[in-house]
Amino acid sequence: MAISIAEVKSSRLSDDKREIIVAGKGKYIGAVEIAVSAACVGDLIDVLMRARGSLEGAPRAATARPGAPAPGAVPANPDEVQVEVAKTCRVIADQTGRRLVVLIFNHRLDNQRAYALPPDGARKVAQGLTQGADAIEAGKSAEPSAPGAA
């Protein structure tokens, strides 16, 4: 049975620092506090952002392709990188107040993926992309980035 939340008032860390407590008001039940395990706060935020996008007419959440590795899956060889050529790319400023730049690959396609970076990280990625493109156009191979450079 779903609880209808009419208002979100605040959030805080639990005393044992294992949960985020969200205080609000239920449509039919009055004041309510919801405890969310710290381990799944990121998942909750992702789900809510996708739902918010649906409300705002944004693209639907990506669905996994048959045989495709799960997002975030670790390859058998940690030095191996799976490369997929994106059909489209879109860059937007996050409108939720978190001060992030969102990079969306395969926008509005079944294999859509999005990554968020702080502004300085986005600048480093932009610089690396530009340097790589310049190197390719000059007929050289791009220098690999140092670990943690982006």
Any key phrases for this structure?
2 helices, 3 domains, OB fold (Dihydrolipoamide Acetyltransferase, E2P), alpha+beta, 150 residues, 23% helix, 3-stranded antiparallel β-sheet
Number of domains: 3
> Into which percentage range does the β-strand content fall?
25-35%
Element-by-element helix/strand order: EEEHEEEH
In the CATH scheme, what's the topology name of the largest domain?
A: OB fold (Dihydrolipoamide Acetyltransferase, E2P)
What strand order characterises the main sheet? 1-2-3
Assembly of the depicted chains: single chain
Percent helix among the residues? 10-25%
In CATH's first tier, which class of the largest domain applies? Mainly Beta
Q: Enumerate the spans where pLDDT stays under 50 for 5 or more consecutive residues.
A: 58-68
What integer is the average pLDDT?
79
Task: Give a description of the structure.
With 150 residues, this protein is of the alpha+beta class. The protein folds into 3 domains: 58 residues, OB fold (Dihydrolipoamide Acetyltransferase, E2P) (Beta Barrel); 32 residues, no CATH class; 33 residues, no CATH class. The strands form 2 sheets. The protein has a 3-stranded antiparallel sheet with strand order 1-2-3, with no helix packed on it. The protein has a 3-stranded antiparallel sheet with strand order 4-5-6. It is elongated and about 65 Å long. About 7% of the residues have low confidence.
